[in-house]
Amino acid sequence: MRTLAETQFSILELVPVRDDKSIHFALQHALELAQTAEKLGYSRMWLAEHHNMDGIASSATAVLLGYLLANTQTIKVGSGGIMLPNHAPLVVAEQFGTLATLYPDRIELGLGRAPGTDQHTMRALRRGQRETEDQFPRDVVEILQYFNDPMPQQRIIATPGQSTHVPVWLLGSSLFSAQLAAKLGLPYSFASHFAPRMLGQAIQLYRENFEPSEYLDRPYVSMGVPTCVADSDEEAAFLATSAYQRVLSLIRGHTLKLKAPIDSMDGLWSSAEKMSVDNFFAMAQVGSKETVKAGLETLLAKYDVDEFIFTCDIYDTEKRLNNFNLLMQIKNSV
C-alpha cells in the first residue's frame, strides 16, 4: 500500500461565491488558489462545470481555465469536469485543443455525463433529448479521436485540437463511468466529495476490468475528499459549519452562497437533514493536521487510491488557503 507521501494531492475548485462578496472576488480568489497550489506543489487544480447555481462561479469552465493558465507557470489545470451532454464533442475538443496549443502539457479534460444543473437549465443549455445509454461513450470516443493524430480520410479535423493529445479523464459517482474508463483505458476520478456511497464498488469494478491502452498502462484512480483543516480540531469544526450550511441550503433549494461559520448547527436542521448532510460528507476530513493525517491514512488503507483531489468550503479566504497549505504539510511530513 502506498503512503501519503507517495499519493498525489490535487484540488477541485468550485469557485465558491461568499454571501458578502462579488463574483469577481470569487474568480480572483480562484486564481490566488491556483498560484498558491502551484507554489505548494499540488499536482493539478480542476474546475467543475455547474449552471444556475448562485454560489458557484465556474460555469464557463474553459474560459476560466484560460485565465488560470495565463497567470500560472507550471501547475496542470483542467476540468473536473466538463459535463459532456451539455456540449458538442467537437466544440469541447476545439476549446481544450486551443488551451493545449497555447499552454502545452498543462491542460487536462475531465468528462462527466451528468448535466450539472436542473431540468429548466438543461433546456436553456439547448440540451436536447438525444441522451441515450450509449451516447456518452460515443461522444467520449469522438473527443479522443479529435485529440489524436488524424485518421486517413477523416473528414472533420479539430483545429486546434487534432494531435494535441490532451489527457482525458472520466469522472463519475456511480458505476457507469467506472466501466467505461476501464474499457477505454482512461484514468478515473470518483466524485466522493459529494456522492461517496458507491466509491468502493466503482473502484473495484474499474480495476478489475481495466484494459491497458495508449493512454494508460495500469489503472489510475483519484477520489474527491472534502477538507477543513485548521490549527485545532475545535477551530476546524467551527469553520466546517460553512460547508454544512451550504449543503443544507442545497437540500432546501435555497441560495448556495457561502455563509459565515456558526457556533453550532443545532436547531438549524432536522434529524433527516442532518443525516443527508452527514452522508454527503461521509469522506470529509475535518480537524487539525494530526486528525486529518490519520483520517487520510485510513482512507488510503481502505481504497488505495493513486490521488486525493480535495475540496474546501471555508468562508475566510486566508483560512481557506491555509487549509491547502496544511494538507501539503501533512503530505510532506510523512
From TrEMBL:
Q: Does the keyword Oxidoreductase apply?
A: yes
Molecular function GO terms recorded = oxidoreductase activity, acting on paired donors, with incorporation or reduction of molecular oxygen
Known NCBIfam families for this protein? oxido_grp_1
Q: Where is the Luciferase-like domain?
A: 25-298
| Highest rank taxon of the organism | Bacteria
- Record's GO cellular component terms: cytosol
Q: Which family does it belong to?
A: To bacterial alkanal monooxygenase alpha and beta chains.
Report the InterPro entries cross-referenced here. Bact_Lucif_Oxidored, CmoO-like, Luciferase-like_dom, Luciferase-like_sf
**Name by which UniProt lists this protein:** Luciferase-like monooxygenase
Q: Which Pfam families match?
A: Bac_luciferase
Keywords (A to Z) from UniProt: Oxidoreductase
